[in-house]
Design a protein that fits this description.
heterodimer; A: 532 residues; alpha+beta; Multidrug efflux transporter AcrB transmembrane fold; Gyrase A, domain 2; Alpha-Beta Plaits; 3 domains; six-stranded antiparallel sheet; four-stranded antiparallel sheet; 54% helix; elongated; B: 323 residues; 2 domains; 4 strands; 8% strand
């Protein structure tokens, strides 16, 4: 009758050994510093930030910035093109970043204007005529959507590079389902201010020719009779950096021939006065542009602009091609940070922090200790009750329960799930359902025994009847877990993951493992009497 | 060993009393929420939490006095075991949601603490949530729950009957409402961990209900002559040992969590304790009661006016016929 018993036992043993190895051993090895191969340790169950300690940030990408930048760039291009045809209308970007306005196109030049506008903006902007030779350009919705999407993606990549450059182990950078939000998790990091500083720097580097300055804002404007020409802008000097303290301003060309995108490398170093500085090298295309720019403007000043502030404005002494240096009041640390952000590329948009959570390592360790203690006490209470109430059969239930725990831990480690506090909640529910499965089976067996069935028949009937019950409860729970996973956010998903795995494991342990143990018991005796 | 020897309680008789009791609890909770509001953790309301560990035993009132705006609306409380000298400070504002300014309030709090000479301390945890996050979290949480319940409704209606499905879903919603009521009355904050506990309760309650239903379904086949009230009563009595054991054991482990699980899990454990009690209770007095009320009015498939046999003997007779 129980021919398959040996194979069933072997299966159970193999499962036990494998999951003990994958799930339990690496955790213990890490805690007690036991030897453990790297590939195994890499598979160890990861602890969430709430248990391990670290920084958890939710930030929003202000994609409006990128949209406005595109509108500005397009309008500038249009201005340039119109100037060559001798049309000089007023061009402004409206507060809504998707639109810009052109005002004062002369009646007789209208056709010419339309041709120029079509050439530059027809693919990306819709043009609406307004009264009096004015036009409104509005970004096409599909272009806008793509641009915002691209901006978020690019931001994620840049943040990823920067966080990695910070030397954070196993950071997680994920996009939130609500679109423009990014979740950054940095285990083990506690200096949140520095991390935020590195991540959030837009780090837009531009080289622009200086037209006037440095000087006070009013003095500079006076030189241009109060209004700057359309192709120039006034920028503040970087506060705290040597020659360009907060009060100094520069008038510079709007167009930046060379930008941070042309950089190949940037690394911290020292300048000729042994002060910290950032050295950079340009890609070949950038080097060509830089050579042309510096060669044509020897004797003039070139502003090095970072995030719309002039860091320094050295005099161009000769033709420079592929490398240069940014100096100006850096400390070794700020030079290092700047080099890092320049290397990782500029952020296409600014960031807004929505949520910030720092769990110190002691706090996480407290949570783990308390959680483990509570689980142990709970498990002990369950085990003692099972032994008292179900006697020898209680051992079955306990073995099944332990199996359940071990396999669940192992599977979670294997699929790379992260253990968080809500995940522990999923664990508790799985344990509860696991206990329930065994209780259901045992109570049913008791009922069958009370109806004067033989022990074998009672056990078989108990398992086969309860199997249907378990199927219904487990499928129902799986359905709800699936919906929770689909629609929930981070912690709810963690709960749903643990629960789903737990339910499958529980079916295996309560039906297969527990029944095999009963069969083993029965096979030993001639006239079996059940201790239940 | 048995907890109850051949139990034969008439549970169904008490259904209206039970439903009245549930309404009283839910309305009491609603009243508290209406007058005092639902206490919400920073995840939902936005704000700043700073957890500080002091080298010397701190005076909470002095800390409160040191806070910006003299701690108006601030929460200052012992965190965990008093010997750990940890204090949780919660201020209901966060910095502006722009640039890196979110942590402004937290920085202000630590600066004030430093200025007031409370001895050396270190910040062991902070939690800062801007005002827009909570609303989204709440929306998605509710959405997830509603869809999950709809899925369950469809499954149970398919496997059992519509009346069973409605009963199970109403019972689960009942459990959520009762637990929320208790959370509001005992002023436990709605945090992410409490949400996880609420989800766990949903699962537990559903599991418990289906187990009872399963036996009702079995009895409906074997006890064709009995009316639905007898069938349900029999099923509940047959499952009474199991209900007490499972509920009791889960309860034990959750009580262990409450006492030993540390500060972070306290709200979680409290929610679970309430949820397990109401989840067990609702399977009988709400879920099964709804089936009795519903099926009692539409006497299809159930033979009417059968001579009412004592439940215990009906159980034996019924089951043996089936097997």
């Amino acid at each position: 009758m129980y021919k398959n018993l040996r194979w069933k036992l072997i299966t159970i043993l193999v499962v036990l050994v494998v999951f003990c190895g994958v799930g339990v051993y690496p955790l213990l090895a890490e805690h007690y510093h036991w030897p453990s191969p790297g590939w195994l340790q890499a598979k160890a169950l990861k602890l969430g930030l709430d248990l391990k300690g670290g920084v958890h940030l939710v930030l929003k990408v202000n994609t409006d910035d990128a949209v406005r930048m595109t509108s500005t760039a397009t309008s500038e291009q249009l201005r340039d093109s119109l100037r060559t045809s001798g049309i000089t209308p007023t061009i402004t970007v409206t507060p809504a970043p998707t639109t810009f306005r052109v005002e004062g196109v002369p009646q007789d030049r209208d056709a010419q204007f339309r041709t120029a506008a079509d050439e530059i903006a027809a693919a990306t902007y819709d043009r609406n005529p307004l009264a009096g030779g004015s036009y409104e350009f509005r970004m096409k919705p599909i272009v806008e959507r793509d641009l915002r999407e691209q901006t978020v993606e690019q931001t994620m990549q840049t943040i990823d590079r920067r966080v990695n450059a910070l030397g954070v182990t196993e950071p997680s950078i994920a996009r939130q389902p609500q679109g423009e939000e990014i979740l950054v998790q940095m285990p083990g990091v506690t200096d949140v201010a520095h991390a935020k500083d590195i991540m959030g720097k837009t780090a837009v580097l531009e080289f622009k020719l200086v037209e006037a300055g440095p000087g006070a804002k009013e003095d500079l404007l006076k030189q241009y009779n109060g209004t700057l020409p359309g192709d120039m802008e006034i920028l503040p000097g970087s506060a705290g950096s040597g020659d360009a303290a907060g009060s100094a301003f520069y008038v510079v060309k709007k167009i930046a021939p060379v930008t941070g995108q042309d950089l190949r490398v940037a690394k911290p170093g020292l300048d000729e006065n042994n002060q910290p500085a950032v050295h950079f090298e340009l890609k070949s295309a950038g080097a060509q542009k830089f050579g042309k720019l510096s060669g044509e403007n020897i004797g003039r000043y070139l502003a090095i602009v970072l995030d719309n502030r002039v860091v320094s404005a050295p005099r161009l002494e000769g033709r420079i091609t592929d490398n240069g240096r940014i100096s100006g009041g850096f400390t070794a640390e700020t030079a290092n940070d700047l080099a890092l952000t320049l290397r990782s590329g500029a952020l296409p948009a600014s960031l807004t922090y929505l949520e910030e959570r720092v769990v110190g390592p002691t706090l996480g360790a407290d949570s783990i200790r308390a959680g483990v203690l509570a689980s142990m006490v709970g498990l002990l209470l369950i085990v003692s009750f099972m032994l008292v109430y179900y006697k020898l059969s209680g051992v079955n239930a306990i073995v099944a329960l332990l199996f359940n725990l071990i396999i669940l831990l192992g599977l979670m480690a294997y699929i790379g799930a992260t253990m968080t506090l809500p995940g522990i909640a999923g664990f508790v529910l799985t344990m509860g359902v696991g206990v329930d499965s065994n209780v259901l089976i045992f109570e049913r067996i008791k009922e069958e025994l009370a109806a004067q069935r033989g022990v074998r028949a009672a056990i078989n009937a108990g398992f086969s009847r309860v199997f249907l019950t378990l199927l219904d409860t487990h499928v129902a729970s799986l359905i709800s877990a699936a919906f929770l996973f689909q629609f929930g956010t981070g912690p709810i998903r963690g709960f749903a993951t643990t629960l789903s795995i737990g339910l499958f494991v529980n079916l295996f342990t309560s039906i297969f493992v527990s029944k095999t143990l009963f069969e083993m018991e029965l096979s030993k005796r001639q006239t079996p009497a059940l201790s239940i | 060993m048995h907890i109850f020897k051949n139990p034969n309680f008439d549970f169904v008789r008490w259904k209206w009393h039970a439903i009245a009791l549930s309404w009283v609890l839910i309305l009491a909770g609603a009243f508290v929420i209406k007058t005092q509001g639902m206490p919400k953790g920073v995840e939902f309301s936005g704000g700043t939490i700073v957890i500080v560990q002091f080298d010397q035993q701190p005076n909470l009132d002095q800390i409160r006095g040191a806070l910006p705006g003299a701690g108006a609306n601030a929460v200052v409380q012992q965190y965990g075991d008093p010997s750990a000298r940890q204090v949780l400070i919660r201020v209901h504002t966060a910095g502006a949601e722009s640039g890196g300014a979110l942590s402004a309030t937290a920085d202000q709090v630590t600066a004030e603490l430093k200025a007031r000479n409370f001895g050396t301390f270190k910040v062991i945890g902070t939690e800062i949530v801007g005002p827009t996050v909570g609303a989204e979290l709440q929306r998605r949480g509710i959405l997830a729950t509603v869809f999950a319940l709809a899925g369950i409704l469809a499954y149970i209606a398919f496997r059992f009957r519509l009346s069973f499905a409605v009963g199970a879903v109403v019972a689960t919603i009942h459990d959520l409402l009762i637990t929320l009521a208790f959370l509001a009355i005992f002023r436990y904050e709605l945090s992410l961990n409490v949400i996880a506990a609420l989800l766990t309760i949903t699962g537990y309650s559903m599991n418990d209900t289906i187990v009872i239903y399963d036996r009702v379904r079995e009895n409906m086949r074997s006890m064709r002559r009995d009316n639905i009230a007898t069938i349900v009563n029999t099923a509940v009595n047959q499952m009474l040992d199991r209900t007490m054991i499972t509920g009791g054991l889960t309860m034990l482990s959750v009580i262990a969590l409450f006492f030993f699980g540390g500060e972070v899990l306290k709200g979680f454990a409290f929610t679970m304790i309430v949820g397990i009690i109401t989840g067990t209770y609702s399977s009988v007095f709400i879920a099964a009661a709804i089936v009795v009320i519903w099926q009692g009015r539409t006497p299809v498939k159930v033979a009417p006016a059968a001579p009412v046999a004592p439940a215990a003997s009906a159980k034996k007779a019924g089951k043996r016929r089936a097997s």
